[in-house]
Amino acid sequence: MTNDLIDLIIKYSELEKIVGLEISDTFMGKVYRSSLWRYPKRILSFLLTELFVFGLIIIFCLPVGLIVARNFNGFTEDSNNTVPFLGITLGISVAIACLWNLYMWFKVKEMKALARLLDEVDRHNEIIQGVQIVDELSAASNSGIVLSERHQAIEALNATRETLVCALMTERILRKHQRFIARRYELFANIESNLATLQHLQVNSQANEYADLIGQALQIGAIVRQEIDRLNN
Amino acid sequence: MNPFAVLINLLRDRTNFLIEISKGIKLESKIFSLLVASSVFLAIYGAIIGASHSWMQSLSSAVKLPALYLITLIICLPTLYFFDILFGSALTFGQYAALSLTTVSVISVLLFSFAPITLFILVSIHDYLFFQLLNVGIFSFTGIVGVKLFYDGMQSLTKIAANSELKSESEEVKPEYANQQTRDRLLQFWLILYGLVGSQLGWTLRPFFGAPSEPFQLFRNIEGNFYAQVFRAVLTLLGAN
Fold first, then answer.
1. Looking at CB atoms within 10 Å, which of A99, A198, B60, B69 has the fewest?
2. Number of helices (H) and strands (E), helices first, in chain A?
């Protein structure tokens, strides 16, 4: 991948600094990303995490079950005495696991905007992969795509990147301080100007190989603006 | 976030891992990953030692062995944290938790590395007492190595903190060193405490192996203590009754 494309990618490490949360394919902070249900691999990763968490909960609930069962019955060679212990331990574990999932479900609702923005970041990164493929194809077929067309695509992606970063920063500020903050107007203005750049680029590049990618970048910009408008209201 | 990748990072570059802990970088994911990775390895070793009795014992030990190490940590961690902050430590509870989990993780990896040997002994030698004593040896050895690494880790973390303090305020360093000595002694005391609590908790959660002459039991009634039983086992093996 060329350096200009590498610079355009929004990496998870950079995202974590902007958003202030640990980001992965499956999780944003302690909450799962709602988009994970669209990808089988991410579902598997999420289910594995659930399994690990349930295992850990059982381990930490073991003493509680042991204390309760010892106080009531004691443990003898009769295996029937293990039933209350298993009942208590598993009961508490399932209850804690349900509470954890309920907490995540509520939090996912609260962080819907961030989840959408992160999905758009993924899409932005996929578009960069797309540009990379077009680059490789044109190099292989020697089709001689005009350099200015590629330049326009890069410019569009640059604007999308800036828009996404601004939107993520705005979301963080709004998440942390729900009330009015002066800085957000500056960020909104930035997003608006980037969107205008994208629209201008799309009009200029209706009929080249990168037009579709620029169109997608414009879509990302529009979705980000919608999300920010929603946050603003 | 791959728990095993975090553990591999710890094993490959412990110094950098400790520096990250001292800076509080990704502390929560480190704690979760170390909890998961160490539980899985301990569960595997637990299942092997339980297999000397029956599949039910194997299943039971697979849960009880991680519980033994992690609950011991939960019991002992507040003592270390509160005493250490009393003597001037600036680390947070999360940092202490991550640090002590590195010990459990190292122990779990070492136990996992002994698993093929234990499995071989289990299959080839049908002697319950020998198997029991061999495992006491393995647990002691891995415990000592893990604790030594923890002690070294704490020392290097303190050095990192002292260096950063030296840079920021060079005049107020002397009282810090006096506190440092106390904290070192405190850490040594805590490690002994950790060992004592761990052994007794192990005794409370027994059986892990399951005596071949007895039917499967999830837990036994509390009687005696761990040290008396090890002493008895050594005497029996030497032929004294």
1. A99
2. 8, 2
